[in-house]
TrEMBL record:
SUPFAM superfamilies: SET domain (SSF82199), TPR-like (SSF48452). This is SET domain-containing protein. Keywords: Signal. CDD domains: SET_SMYD. InterPro entries: SET_dom, SET_dom_sf, SET_domain_protein, TPR-like_helical_dom_sf. It comes from the Eukaryota. PANTHER family: SET DOMAIN-CONTAINING PROTEIN, SET DOMAIN-CONTAINING PROTEIN 5.
Length: 410
């Protein structure tokens, strides 16, 4: 697409408005914007997949640059080293065919509305089934978390300005996000927005702040009905339904680390995100909060216990603890990417000879991995390994059935 469009665009030495071209996103999002590009580079340069020359400032340690792909409306602030090594691995995924989860509604299943006491929030416009993807949102800005330390304030603002200004909508979507006025000065607007709305993500083993314009509209809840998952290979954050969500219900995610107890959770939310949580759990009676805290403590304890019991060969007891843990995780709305968690009971059920249950849990792991869209190299290896394990279980089940039939004939 890029290589087809560029010669056309560049051969037109006209005004900016004339080189705008409609570029619909490859999957349903709330963005349906017109592409206006400035300082485009040729697609044949080694800078592909970036559409702009990097915009750099030179700090003591290493330059920090802005890399932009305006068609996908993403800017990454990082060092040239990072861009040419770990991030380079990702370049294939920024070009089509692009990431799309299998379990997604063809029409966006929510709308952003005003919610009393919360500003804006996302409300379901239809019944959303557990396990469905609600939204796939490519990061608008990914900024290496350490960069503000070794560059000046003005330089941070300069990088942010370039990163936001080069986005497909000229930064309109980012600028519309809320800011809590953490910074006093007017010209810190973008920095303020980034601090107030970004999620911590990991790219190539390094910490980044990720700004996702559509995800930022979803409010926090300490017992959410949806959860987020960031893909390192596609730069996209997906919101998944953790339970069935009714039409008209607010869709919420959690901003704090899963499993925190009431007090530490509220403190973190206030310190990091700048708001006092008034979700149903935080405003519930002390007895309900105490019950939730005790559930969360038990989950932590069970997590350790499952591993310890399994190591000692006490498989049946380990399974009992695992089942209890899943029950509590569901009660507390802490469902997250469970793939890895299901793998333990899958192995344990196999070891105790309950092949039906082993298959059930292995299929859950497989489903989750495939459901999250294009898995990375690690994910692919895991899927191959799971395939082998599933075949092994199925062979075992076949033998079991034959043995049963044999006994029936006697
Ligand atoms: Zn809360």
């Amino acid at each position: 697409m890029l290589s087809l469009l560029l010669p056309l665009l560049l051969s037109h030495p006209t005004t900016a408005s004339e080189i705008c071209t409609p570029y619909p996103p490859p999957y349903p999002t709330s963005q349906n914007l017109t592409t206006c590009l400035d300082s485009l580079i040729s697609s044949s340069t080694p800078l592909t997949p970036w559409t702009h020359l990097p915009h750099c400032i030179y700090a003591d340690q290493s330059p920090h640059c802005v890399y932009t792909n305006a068609f996908h409306s993403i800017s990454i602030i990082t060092t040239p080293d990072e861009a040419s090594t770990s991030l380079n691995l990702l370049s294939h995924s920024i070009n089509p065919p692009f990431f799309a989860p299998k379990k997604i509604y063809p029409i966006k299943p929510y709308k952003v509305v005003s919610i009393p006491g919360k500003g804006k929030g996302a409300v379901a416009t239809r019944r959303i089934q557990k396990g469905m993807a609600i939204l796939v949102d490519t990061a608008s800005i990914l900024a290496q978390a350490e960069y503000p330390a070794d560059v000046t304030r003005e330089e941070v603002q300069d990088l942010m300005g370039a990163a936001v200004g080069r986005l497909r909508d000229g930064g309109e979507g980012v600028r519309a996000l809320s800011r809590k006025g953490r910074s006093e000065e007017e010209d810190d607007e973008l920095e303020d927005i980034l601090l107030n709305n970004s999620f911590a993500v990991v790219l190539g083993g390094k910490n980044y702040m990720g700004l996702f314009v559509d995800v930022a509209r979803f409010n926090h809840d300490c017992r959410p009905n949806a959860f987020i998952h960031f893909s390192e290979t596609t730069f996209a954050m997906t919101i998944w339904a953790a339970k069935d969500i009714e039409e008209g219900e607010e869709i919420t995610i959690t901003y704090s680390a899963a499993g925190m107890l009431t007090e530490e959770r509220q403190q973190t939310l206030e310190k990091v995100w700048g708001f006092k949580c008034k979700c149903s759990l935080c405003t519930a009676s002390p007895s309900i909060q105490a019950k939730s805290d005790s559930n969360r403590k038990e989950i932590r304890h069970l997590q350790d216990q499952v591993g310890q019991l399994a190591q000692k060969g006490k498989y049946h007891e380990a399974l009992k603890s695992a089942e209890r843990m899943f029950e509590l995780i569901e009660t507390e709305g802490l469902t997250d990417q469970m793939g890895d968690m299901y793998e333990v009971p899958a192995r344990l059920y196999y070891l105790v000879g309950n092949l039906e249950k082993a298959l059930e849990y292995t299929l859950k792991v497989q489903n989750e991995l495939q459901g999250y869209g294009v898995p990375g190299k690690f994910g692919m290896e895991k899927l191959r390994m799971l395939d082998g394990f599933i075949k092994k279980i199925e062979r075992g089940l076949k033998r079991k059935r034959k043995a049963k039939e044999g006994r029936g004939k006697k």
